[in-house]
Amino acid sequence: MGDKTKLAVSPVIQVGGSLFTPDQLAKIGTVVGSDAKIEMTSFKQLYVEVPLDEREAIQEELERAGLEVYPAGFATKSLIACNFCKGAEEAGLETARILNRAIAGIATPTPLKIGYAGCALGTSEPLLKDIAVVKMRDTFDIYVGGEPKGIKAATGRLLVSGISEERLVPVVSTLIDFYKQQAKGKEKFSKFVDRITMEQLKQIVA
Description:
Layout: E1 4-10, H1 22-32, E2 38-40, E3 46-51, H2 55-64, E4 68-71, E5 80-81, H3 88-91, H4 93-103, E6 114-117, E7 131-136, E8 139-144, E9 157-163, H5 165-182, H6 189-196, H7 198-205
Parallel strand pairs: 5-6, 6-7
Antiparallel strand pairs: 1-3, 1-4, 2-3, 7-8, 8-9
Helix pairs in contact: 4-5
Pfam family, one: NIR_SIR
Keywords: Iron, Iron-sulfur, Metal-binding
InterPro entries: NO2/SO3_Rdtase_4Fe4S_dom, NO2/SO3_Rdtase_4Fe4S_sf
């Protein structure tokens, strides 16, 4: 048997949430083969195991089917977004897509989950993610340090509020870059936030 690798596969961000079409699911099954392992993750991606030497060809075929394909493992996950129940424009669908294109698939010390909610209802549970973006009318609030696992589970803390749409990607990208540069080994983002302190992070994104 040859070497295997994993791809992270997700549908496009859209009104209604994480929706695969029947054709897309059939395509996944066809291109990875009947013996492949497919894992449903907690961050709305499918991990599919493929032969290493066929990775590029399989990725291209999945992308032609309208799917998004990213590295698995230690990288920023595709944006974990809400269902945009208030409508694409009001909930900021295009903004979410722009943010996703900017941040998904970046190599990081540990897997990094970034949540997005189009309103304060927060149906995507963004405050349980490492970085959370919540749209508040025409601006955005950013929270950091959410931890969903263990007996010390915690919600993210408000880092900055009233961010304009134009500043959203630069601020989130700055947080990711700073984490990559300053993390100690495989330090989880929530522990990184505690060590660095909220005050220093506020200065970094100011």
